[in-house]
Amino acid sequence: MTIRKFHEGLTNKVFSAREALAEFYKTIDAHDDEIGAYLSTDRDAAHTQAEEVDRMVDRGEKLPFLAGVPLAIKDNIMVKGERCTAASKILDGYTAMYDATVIKKLRNEKAVFLGKTNMDEFAMGSSTENSAFKVTKNPRDITKVPGGSSGGSAAAVAAGLAIAALGSDTGGSIRQPADFCGIVGLKPTYGAVSRYGLIAMASSLDQIGPLTNTVEDAAIMFQAICGEDPRDATSASVTYGDELLNFPIAHMHAMTIGLPKEYFITGVAKEVMKNVENAIKRFKDLKVRFKEISLPHTKHALSVYYILMTAEASANLARFEGIRYARVPVAASAETIMERYVVNRSHGFGDEAKRRIMLGTFVLSSGHYDAYYAKAQKVRALIRRDFDEAFKGVDAILTPVSPTPPFALGEKTSDPLTMYLSDIFTITANLAGLPALAIPKNFQLIGKPFREADLLGLGQQYERINQ
Amino acid sequence: MLITKKLLAHLAHLARLELTEDETTRFSKDLTAIVRHFKDLDSVSGADAAVPMIGGGMRLTNIMRTDRVSLSGEAESVDEEGHIVRAFPDSHEGHLKVQKIL
Question: The complex's ipTM?
């Protein structure tokens, strides 16, 4: 089911919003025990939202595109009155006291929120195995991981447990799970979507974006959530027009896509490479030109990313002391306030969160700051410069999303460095602040800042010839 | 660079964490491997003083706006203003309740 089909069904009274909602909860009850996509659902709230949409239908009012559309929301995005834990024990029991800006915007569009989805704790991971609460399985093969960190959102959409979902992407956390589950995922330009109400991991890299069945759905969702927000000082004043959904074909025929040689390397799984080459062929059928380019600092991206992201995460996670938000039960041994902080944090955070806090503390600590943090910031500027240079000659860049197909549950949990390497093709878009769209099978398009329309336009045409 | 158990204990103190013996052994191994990977940055030429550090993905400008008196947080009415207190895990007559500090 796509957003457009849902909209047509609702408008033509084939079904009511309440009927559709009940059907989705029936599917969730039947299948989510196995998949594990959701952490919580608030059925009364969803029912009230659907009821309001049905009243609009009865009154013959014009319905927004997203009216009544059942959505899944990653559990690090605040929905007022609903549980919000970022899949961490340290937030277990916390109820969001306000709506994130993206949620407020979706409410204005009359969307319906089915529930909150599983994720790696604080969005730290590439397989959703770092959740403190449960493991999510890949609906296409339940012995495999769904990817991460937005694995619950990706699995929900792929398994038909939601029409579309929101996730967050700090180093590939929307695109990689979308890729692993065979759906579409968009990481918008840094600043295109407000981060207000998103539990922060690495503030200079995080962006909220949609996971959907089709590129058109991603465009509809992006159009609904983008825009400047006075509550997020890094959000940008950019207006996206009609071209997100109606990209002129003539523009596309004049486009050139760059293929960075640093991304087409040995070590990428054959199956992935075959799918990427196939996509290139289909774009050539659409009269799009290709050109080899070079992004020479790519090989340093992983180090830069893991230095900056952990530094920012260690600072962002400093606020969780188990006293505000949700209360960690007091240990009898903790007498002073400092002891209590230490006990609460040590019990509240999982392995990966601790590992990243420690690493971030290390790169920011006196004596190591210049060698790691300051150096990484400079190399980040060089990575961005590579893209600026490349975009002088091309309109978009095509690369694989992940070097491998979905891996088995438990396969990489004991070796964090191997797990980190699965982010290798997705992190550069975050470091450079660029938009990137993952499309089945196995490829992503990276665009110029605030040119989501280029990616969504190319993607929608690609989708049409592949139907 | 070796992330020794001694260094790890120092970092844990800075991060307000207490590591178990098992965590110390694993993290020492994991962090050493990861920090060793960071060595590749040593070979980057051009990342000298002339390259500015960037703190965000985009080129940002300072944003100033006028102070405005409004309801606290996301409260939709004056009645709802108590929601900050209510959202806190424990409270008493409008005051936030925590364990004794002194």
Answer: 0.88
